C-alpha cells in the first residue's frame, strides 16, 4: 500500500520545481511514446491517428500530474480528463491489457524523469510518491473507461439482438437484419432452428444474467444463439452444432438434439421449428414454431421439446394454413402419386376404426393386400396407420386433402 500523502506534503513542492515540471511536459510525453514503441512491438504497428490519440492522452496526463501537485484534491477529475479527451474509438481499438501496458510504461518513464527535477531530497521523495499515486489513479481511470465502454457495448448488443429476433419473428428477412446479426458475430449463412417457449422465472435474479446463462449453455453445445424475450414467450435462434461439445452437454442417445436446452425455458411446452438454411429464411422456422406453441395445448402428452412438424393436426385445427398445406404435401400428395388405391385403403382403414378384416371386406380384397398397402403408406409418409398418434395425423391429412380439393380425394366405400 502506498504511503499516505497529505495535502501539505504535496504543496511542499516549490513553485520553481513546478515550473521545471511544466517545461518538461513536452519532452516527457515524447519519451513516453518512444518507450512505448520500444517496449510494445504492436504499438509501432498502430495507425498514425491511433498513436496520436495515445500521445494526446499522455500529454494530458503529464499536464494533469503537474496540475494535481497544486490541486491534489482534484486527482480523480484530472485523471479522468486524461481519457475523456481521447478519440472516442480509442478504447475499442486498444484492449484493456494493452492500455494497462501503456500506463505501466508511462509510469516507469515518470518515475525515471520526474523526481530528478526536484530541488532537494524532500521534494524528491514527494515526487516519487506522487508519481506512484498518480499512476494508480490513471490505471483506475482507464479501468473505468473500459468498464463504461463494455456496458455501453453490452446495451447496444442487447438492442441489436432484440431487433434481429423480432425481425425473424415478423418475417423481415432483409439486408439490415443480416447486417445486424453479422455485427453480433452471427454467421448469416449458418443453418438455423428457432425454439419458442415460456421464459424462465427470474426468482429475484437479474433477467440479463439468466439470458447470459442461456447463451453460455448454447456455446457449450457448439451453437451460436440469439435470445429474445417477447412478453410471455422466449425465442431462441440456434445454429447447427459447431466445434467440440462438453461431455455433460451431449444429448443422450435417442434424445432430441436440443433437449438439454429445455431446462433454460420456463414451464410449459417448448416447440422447435424446422431447420432453415440460413438466417434470411429463419422466419419460416419461427412461424412454424410459434404456430406450434399456440396449438401445443391440444396435445397435453406432447414431448418436451416437440418439433413443430409433430403438431400438424393441432396446428391445422387451430387454423394454421401452413399446417394444412404440409399435411397435404406430406401425406396426400405422395399417396396420390403412388396410385389412388393406397389413399382409398388408408381412408377405409381409418374410417373403419383400424380393423384390418373389416377394411379388407369393404374393399373386396384379401387382408394381406390391405397389410401390403398400409405398409406402403408407412414407407411413403413415414407414418404408421396402426399407431394412434400417426393415425391422427393421417386422418387429419385426409380431411385437409378433401377440403383442399373434394373432387380429387377418394372417399372410403
UniProtKB/TrEMBL annotation:
Span of domain CdaR GGDEF-like: 171-295
Tree of life domain: Bacteria
Domain (PucR C-terminal helix-turn-helix) ranges: 342-400
InterPro entries named among the record's database cross-references: CdaR-like_regulators, CdaR_GGDEF, PucR_C-HTH_dom, PucR_C-HTH_sf
PANTHER family for this protein: CARBOHYDRATE DIACID REGULATOR, PUCR FAMILY TRANSCRIPTIONAL REGULATOR
Family: Belongs to the CdaR family.
Protein name: PucR family transcriptional regulator
